[in-house]
Amino acid sequence: MSTVPDYAPESKTAQDRKGAPLPTPTPAPGPKLRATNVNFFYGTFQALYDISLDMQEHLVTALIGPSGCGKSTFLRNLNRINDTVRNSRMEGKILLDNEDVREVDVTNLRRRVGMVFQRPNPFPKSIFENIAYGLKINGMAKRSEMRDKVERSLRRAALWDEVKDKLHESAYALSGGQQQRLCIARALAVNPEVLLLDEPCSALDPVSTAKIEELMLQLRSSCTVAIVTHNMQQAARVSDVTAFLLEGKLIECRPTAQLFTNPADPRTEAYITGRFG
Amino acid sequence: MATPLVVETPVIRRQTQAGDIVARWVVTVFAASILFVTALLVYQLWTGSAPSRLKSGFGFLTSTQWNPVTEEFGALPFIYGTVLTSVLALLISVPLGLGAAIYLAELAPARLSDALTFLVELLAAIPSVIYGVLAIFAVVPLMRSHVEPFLKSSLGFLPLFKGPSLGVGFLTAGVVLSIMTVPYIVSVSRESLLAVPREQREAALALGATRWEMVWQVVVPYAKLGIFGSIFLSLARALGETMAVTMVIGNDPKIRASLLAPGYSIAAVIANEFSEATGATYQAALVELGLILFVLTIIINAVARLMIAATTRKGSKRS
Ligand SMILES: Nc1ncnc2c1ncn2[C@@H]1O[C@H](COP(=O)(O)OP(=O)(O)O)[C@@H](O)[C@H]1O
Ligand SMILES: [Mg+2]
Hints:
The complex is a heterodimer. By secondary structure, chain A is of the alpha/beta class. Chain A has a single domain, classed as Rossmann fold (3-Layer(aba) Sandwich). Chain A contains ten helices and ten strands. In chain A, the strands form two sheets. In chain A, strands 6-7-8-3-9-10 form a six-stranded mixed β-sheet, with helices on both faces. In chain A, helix 7 (about 205-220) links the parallel strand 7 and strand 8 (about 225-230). Chain A is globular, with a radius of gyration of 19 Å. In chain A, about 45% of the residues are buried. The model of chain B is unreliable at about 1-5 and about 315-319 (pLDDT under 50). Chain B contains 13 helices and two strands. Chain B is mostly helical. In chain B, about 75% of the residues lie in helices and about 0% in strands. The relative contact order of chain B is 0.14. Classes of the chains: A alpha/beta, B mainly alpha. Bound molecules: adenosine-5'-diphosphate and magnesium ion. Magnesium ion (MG) binds near residues 71, 72 and 199 of chain A. Magnesium ion binds near residues 71, 72, 198 and 199 of chain A.
């Protein structure tokens, strides 16, 4: 029995990343993110089957489906955070701006594709330090610019007014909803082109949830957003496109309004009308 | 159906209550015995050292003379030797142990990590006299013929590295103590690193941190309380270590600037001289040295707690 966390080695280093100019997002023809025939395995267990899905720039894509259907797994392949799971393996291709995510520097990929997790996971540091961390490691701000950039990120996450007087207090002093918005601000600080959110509201109260949903609608103008959610009303409220997954397979992916009013597949209909899952 | 229940319930309850009361008393007595032993220890050290305390007063702490024949007793050379060797030990064992812990927790393949951890925990359990033997046959010759000549030729202009290469002395004792304390640092630090939640690691990676940035800037700071704990555990062991130190420190009660020179430590002198200490003052002086070591340990523990409390307050309170 091993007690070591199952992290597989990663080969890429920060060397070529520091100091390199940040790539300006060039409007590429085609989708922002394109997954083609993605299969994913945890050891011998296959969690994803042949998933092909496009995410268009500046749209919010919702991933819905019953628990354990592979939503998180799919999302975690988009920024290759699942590379760190021992004995895991992905087949197929994922393209970001037509570039294979497995051929770009993984640290730069993750800078461009931000992620917010199910449970708020701020660092045990001050609010300010939480936001500044990503800027520091990516060499994205001089000391003098740091404060401005931190403020801007907190404003984008609609948290500034609540924390501006206690920037140097522990992030753990915030409520759960504030912590989650802090995590969103932390992700936004490094200017991601894509933001992945894995059930960001599942641990939050309705008021915090409403705030985050509102945020999502605003983020659309600057980011491409993918959100996993259990909550179908939430998917309907915030997303432009919805993808329904079942047992590791993509059942259908269509504009949200169509999928909810007129599902093509009987399994989708069964799910959205609450007959299982 | 209801009647038997009514009859039986009080019986069952009475038994449980009696058991509760007995258990409560037993654990209270056990807990009280801890207090009792501590109190007894302090009492013994205090009364046992009375003749010496009355004779030399605070001069005992500052006097550098130790001469049982003329009944001159001063503690400073022993305090110096104890503190110096412990500090040397930590200077070596903290970077070494923390590095090894990081390797085992974060980088090594699982099988290798488990095997090495088993060995490290084995090393922590070896009696110190065995380390002493190892030191005499391996460390002392190595220090005498390689390390000390090298230090003298390269850094000999410093007062720290002057004098003959004896092989025994402060530096050798520090090295041996570091070998003995590394396993504590490795095993406790490794545990604390492994206890850092996966979410913290993923938060760093998802922002574009490299593996090393994640380990050094997020995982290690998160685990710092446990790491501090391991360091203070090692320091406590180094301060009190007797056998291995007395075998390699040279047993000479002198304060010398050179790390290559022989010295003495509190624990070593008590062990060496107690059985042949004739005369009430001689024996009391040794007991007073014991009292000093006890107080030193308490101070270190207090400092450790303060440091931990301070770092916990500073923006790092865990929910
Ligand atoms: N680290 C892992 N190791 C092995 N199996 C996993 C791991 N993570 C998830 N799984 C399995 O993969 C399947 C999909 O999980 P997940 O993507 O977390 O589902 P969802 O997010 O849709 O609830 C589940 O059956 C789950 O048990
Ligand atoms: Mg999930």
